[in-house]
Amino acid sequence: MFTIHLHNLKFFSFHGLHEEEKVLGKEYDVNADVTFEEYGLVNRLNQTIDYVKIYDIIKQRMNVPTHLLETVAQDLAQSIYKADSRITSIHISIKKLHPPIAAFEGSVGVSYKKDF
Q: What is the CATH classification number for the domain harbouring 47?
C-alpha cells in the first residue's frame, strides 16, 4: 500500500456558524492522506493517485461555505474516494487558524478518517 500526502494546504474560506466568519472569512490549513492498493511496480501516473486531482477536489470543496468543519471533512473523504476506487483509506484534517474566540491564540480543527 501507498499513501499520498497533501499537507499544509492553505485556503481562505467562509466556513462557520458565526456571521463574522461568513462575511470576513478565515484561513484554513488542510491535510489529506490517501491510502491505496498498488498492483506491482508503480512507474506510471495511472498506477498511482494523482495528487493534482486530489488537490483540485479539496480546493473546490473549500470554496463552498459550510457551517461545520465536520461536514467539510466528510464531504472531502467521499469526493476523493469517488475519484479513484483503489483508495482504501482517507484521513482529512482541517484547522481553522485564528478562530473568533476572545483572547485565544492557536487553531481549532477536526480530523476524520474513513476506511473503504
A: 3.30.1130.10
Give me the torsion for CA of 32, 84, 112, 24, rounded to 10°: 60
The DSSP call for residue 99 is: -
Name the domain count of the chain.
1
What's the pTM? 0.92
- Bridge-based pairing state of the strands 87-97 and 26-36: antiparallel
What secondary structure does DSSP assign to 26-76, as a single string?
Answer: EEEEEEEEEEE---S---SGGGS--HHHHHHHHHHHHTS--S-HHHHHHHH
Domain extent for 28: 2-115
pLDDT category at 21 given cuts 50, 70, 90 is: confident
